[in-house]
Amino acid sequence: MIPHRFDYHAPTSVDGVVALLDADSVVLGGGTWVVPALADPHHRVATVIDLRRAGLAGIEDRGDHVWLGAMATYTDLLRTAVTPPLLRLVAEGVTGGPQIQHQGTVGGAACAAKPTSDIPCALLALDAVATVLGRSGERRIPVARLWEAPFRTTVAEDEVLTGFEVPVRRAGFAYRKLKCGTSSWPIVTAAVVSTVDDGVLTELRVAVGAAAAVPFIVPAADLTGSTPFAMLAVELAERASMALTDPWSDEIAPAEYRAAVLPTIVRRAVTDALEDCRA
Amino acid sequence: MVDPTARDVVTARVTYFGDVSVPGTTHVALVRGTYPHARIRGIQTPRDLPGVLRIVTAAELSDVDPVPHNVDPAGIGGQHADIPVLANTVRYAGQPVAAVVAETEGDAIAAAAAVEVDYEPLPFVLDTAEALAAGAPVLVEGWRDNVIASGEYLEGDPDQVFASAEHVLEGTVRIQRATTAPMETRGYLADWDARARRLTLWATTQNPHQLRWAVATALRLGEHQIRVIAPRAGGSFGLKMHGYPEEILVCALARMVGRPVRWVEDRAECLLVGAREYTATYRAAADGDGRVRALDVTVTGNLGAPAALPGWGQAFVGTASLPNGYRVRDCRIRWQAVATNKAPWTGARGYGREITVLAMEHLMDRVAAVSDVDVAEVRRRNWVRADEFPYDTPTGLRLDSGDYHGLLERALRTVGYGKERTAQQEARAAGRLVGIGLGFEVVPESPDLPGSLVSGVDTSTVRMDPAGHVTVLTGVTSPGSGSDRGIAQLVGTELGVDPAEITVVQGDTDLCPYGYGTLSSRGLVTGGGAAVLAARDIAAKLCTVAAAMLEASPDAVTLAGGMATVDGKAVPLAAVAHAVHTLGFILALGIEPSLEATRTYRPGNISHRPDAAGHIQPFTTYSNALHVAVVEIDPDTGELALRRHVTAHDCGTIVNEAAVEGQLHGAVAMGMGLVTGEEVRYSTDGRQLTAGFKTYLMPRITDLPRIELVHQQTPSPFTFNGSKGAGEVGVAGAVAALVGAANDAVRPLGVRFDRLPLSPPNVLATLRKPVVAL
User: Fold this and answer.
1) Is the pLDDT of residue A216 over 80?
2) What pLDDT was estimated at residue B772?
3) pLDDT < 50 stretches in chain B
4) Is the ipTM here above 0.90?
5) Which residues of A touch B262 (CB under 8 A)?
6) d(CA A255, CA A253)
7) Residue B409 CB: number of other CB atoms within 10 A?
8) Residue A50: C-alpha distances to residues A32, A53, B759 (Å)
9) Contacts of residue A187 in chain B, CB cutoff 8 Å?
């Protein structure tokens, strides 16, 4: 039950969306986050701008990258052949099952900037670039700079996220997520993109989600060019622990728990990714 | 046979509370206290908000009396508290302090958020140790302390046995604050007819007649001036027993504004209503051969703020169930229901057995360990034997019947105990933490508490119309448990009619006989027993008239398949029913020419005469179950995986196996949820943090193993057909079995779980704790 009255718009173009944006508006993607938030009687907005008709739902192969429209749902990710495999893994395991898969969107999950969420960590591992449109034009924001703080992105009040460019790679992927049961939001996630050419590690990106206020990358640049050694996964697990300085805490998992399980999740994800490279 | 209830539910033909629509209805939202304990200095009500008809505070309810107690603790020597409909002093964050009536639900919620309350915060207590400490703030003016009620059972000489025992084991187990969480929350819709001076209340209630009494009492009306209608329930589990301020409030507001008034609880409000939070400390004395000789148990419940709800009785019933079917005669068993500044409890499925069964099974596993006896064998050595029933317990209860040893053998055979133990050894050798646990529970059902409207009897009417259609009206209700279809089945058998063709009417105080609704698995034994008696009256008349029609002796007539038959001659029951109504002066001369009977069934076993120790025997039946759980723990993450769960169940004679199994699945899953993570949390400043299903983590089907059921039927000698209650058994035993299995899994690490939930963070914290003794 949303108690307060508000104006509702569903513009048929992104420009139409931009024209309506202001400090008292809220942009509606799939609505799985915004609609329940509007039920709080202390949360009041003047305008709801629904993206459903703005033409942002596509997933397209654009040569060197895949374009993910902000309104692409998890189901779209699962049903589109060009979806990066890592995002397919994420979409399969999203909390809430088919109802959320049909309704929730990639752009919505990114903009909600919930610490305990799947999409940000995965986009970070994929080194995606967000595109946003505002009255002063379009901006491209590497996702490493997209999440600023819990529940806050660097998308400005007068801007709307239109989608993501995800670089195309021939790589091994893995996604590991620890939850406190099926209905739980993620407690710690790890997304790994790794490429091994002729026995040499040419790319390794390990991103960690839900463990901290915003997702972060585990430093691994120095490891490219090396042979994937037996203890690589353990090494990255240790580095992940070092990189976690301020663990996130919420009602279902305290900071100490997140810190305690982080190395296990990273170790398992890296192991999976290297296995995927071999396969 | 297609179950007509199931058909109607899945094809959306049943009426739930949310489907009830009355023209002109207004909507209520509540302003709830934001402090755990505070005096209200003043309330500022905003003006000119859209759609708002009225904003009501305690001052405007001077003609409304306090919420009547479901079962007043003062009745057994506890302390009475008046529970206001709207509070001047809040005793928990979330207590209703004002109500907004508005044209729409949204308008009401928005206005309620705009009401400003000026509070004077008072000292508060959140846990029982704080509440019981010397110098703790006493929460109710005039109370001697914060104990709502308490009790003690003492039999034999436990202290002497402890002094000479080979082993003495001490421990403490805890169950977290948790609640019922049905899919459908509470809701009330009241319509005051000023002309007829009559109130109609549609309510999510398990007990329509008792709710009618409560509303009549608080509103100073006659019970005859109130009709309570309980639409089909979307789950209940104890949440929908009476004793809530909102029940009275909605009716008072309807009378005040002269229009229908509706309130629906939201999920956060529903999660406020607690149902469990216990600590049990135990001491057990045992022989070297694994026999328990003495027991000393104290159960403390954190009941939250005093309420008119029946939650406090759980600590009492839970301890009365000790020693849980074991032959321990030297016992000291104590309980206390303690008031704190959390939100109050209702009674919930399990009704306190979850803590006492957990304590008893926890200590049994430890007795097995110190005696070097298998956990199955230690139970065999301690149980009451099948030939000892009816068995009088040290707490004054009379266990009706049972074969606990038989139950164990069925469970072990079904799970393949030997094989599972071998597999466990192999897993352990590979460094995996696999455990097997047993959980046994004896569950008193269908109580009759003297002086209260909690009754062990009930009444049913059976009618056959002139076309032969059968309608049953009963005083019991079905919270989704299937008592309606079970009763149809019983009546169908008596009358020789297809149960699918029988209409069962429940939950309407204008239509149904006075009855006591649903609680404590009472529906089938009480309402079913009454319906059988009534159906037999009808059957006798049908046989008499059919005999006249077939020119035979009534004794020779059989009723089956919709026909009355004698010696190969048959007449349809519809024709017999028609004859009773149309040819009464020819064919029905020896009987009253009607096919309607109302009967009341009073089962045996209940005794209100105190025994030598002053205890009464208030329960009808004692269903029981033995669970075997197999679990695995991930040592790196603390995740608890439920691998297998076998439940051997004995509820006496089974009337409808599908209904019994459905209830059992639900109860076991509820116990599993308590173990895996359902928890209501509070902040240190006394506010409830858990407000939705993203923080109150109920298990989903993917979290649970297939629940493997096996039945044993040991009839009760005290009920009309040997049936006992079904529906409540499963929660407590599942909890105990899972905790036992988890402890078995981590035994090689020298740690032990004694605190629920076994959520991954809690499990990992225990795994990384220093080693404890056996």
Assistant:
1) yes
2) 54
3) 774
4) yes
5) none
6) 7
7) 16
8) 13, 8, 39
9) 760
